[in-house]
Amino acid sequence: MTDTVAPPKIELLTFRLADQEYALDIMSVREIRGWTQATPLPHAPHYMKGVINLRGTVLPVMDLGARLDLAAREQTARNVIIVVKHEDSMTGLLVDAVSDIVALTSNDLQAPPEISPGQSAGVVSALTLIDKRMIRVLNLAATIVVQEGIAA
Question: Does residue 4 lie within any of the structural domains?
């Protein structure tokens, strides 16, 4: 009898953004909150909505659609902010709606094809099919690029 080790389970939070579906590793998600108007900061990149007060902490909020160069859309009460933690920093990601939490294995994920050499190959780390829907798994480190002097 041979022992086969099952690949470890990976839990992903799926969400909608400009009529497309994306996912993040659930371990990086700290909370999901309703849309709150952000206070803009001067000289911030175009995709930074500004900052909000999160229980006494100033939290930068990124419009994930703008960050990924997706079509602009109007913010509504249905939008949500996914608060994520990467390394030692917390960031809010503005998305259209949260869909589901799914459990997969690494065997369910496929590497994205290289469309053009060197072009932001890092923001989508994997692709997966869930109920015949193509889900793009984001590489949080490449998506939340910490730049010097972003704010204040």
Answer: no
Beta bridge partners of 102: 12
d(CA 75, CA 12): 24
Q: Which domain holds residue 54?
A: 9-143
Provide the 8-state DSSP code for 144.
S
* Torsion angle defined by CA atoms of residues 42, 48, 51 and 55, in that order, rounded to the nearest 10 degrees: -160
C-alpha dist (Å) from residue 81 to 51, 93, 112, 134:
12, 5, 26, 22
The reply to whether 21 falls in a domain is: yes
Segment 92-117, tens digit of pLDDT: 999 999 999 999 998 899 988 876 65
Q: Which of the residue ranges 2-11, 70-79, 131-140 has the most confident prediction, judged by mean pLDDT?
A: 131-140
End-to-end CA distance of the chain: 63
Question: What is the number of structural domains in the chain?
Answer: 1
The two three-digit tokens of residue 37, written as one number: 């108007």
Cβ neighbors of 71 (< 8 A, separation 6 or more) are 18, 65
Instruction: Match 């294995």 to its residue by tokens.
Output: 105
